[in-house]
Design a protein that fits this description.
The chain is α+β, with helices and mostly antiparallel strands. The chain has one domain: 3-Layer(aba) Sandwich (GIY-YIG endonuclease), CATH 3.40.1440. It contains three helices and three strands. The chain has a three-stranded antiparallel sheet with strand order 2-1-3. Strand 1 and strand 2 form a beta hairpin. The radius of gyration is 21 Å and the shape is elongated. The N and C termini lie far apart (81 Å).
């Protein structure tokens, strides 16, 4: 991949709970997100997109590598030695959230019902 002198976006993708899912770079975020939507099984979990424009592709690539190594997003494969573990931890997080929501749904009919009695 040749180095490009044009400015490049470093983007971060988060789920509804604010969990970082993926970090990437591109010179056209909308086009890249369309590609993710077609090919990434995790794309439906994306709720927030954060974009930071950098001077050129080399700067963006350097920043992407550093961020992936530091934050271990579950769906980054490059520079992420803990990719599999991070993905499993994220899936555990989702499973725990689903279990909590399920327990609350089972308990909530009685807990959420409010009855008012008029003393007269």
């Amino acid at each position: 991949m040749p180095e490009s002198p044009e400015r490049t976006a470093l983007y971060r993708l988060y789920d509804t709970d604010g969990q970082l899912l993926y970090i990437g770079i591109t010179n056209d975020p909308d086009r890249r997100w369309t590609q993710h939507a077609r090919s990434s099984r995790w794309w439906p979990a994306v709720a927030t997109k954060q974009v930071e424009w950098l001077g050129d592709r080399r700067d963006a690539l350097r920043a992407e590598k550093a961020e992936v190594k530091r934050l271990n997003p579950p769906y980054n494969r490059n520079w992420n030695p803990w990719e599999v573990r991070a993905r499993l931890q994220y899936q555990d997080h989702l499973d725990r959230e689903a279990a909590i929501k399920e327990r609350l749904a089972v308990r909530s009919p009685g807990l959420m019902r409010t009855e008012f009695h008029d003393p007269d």
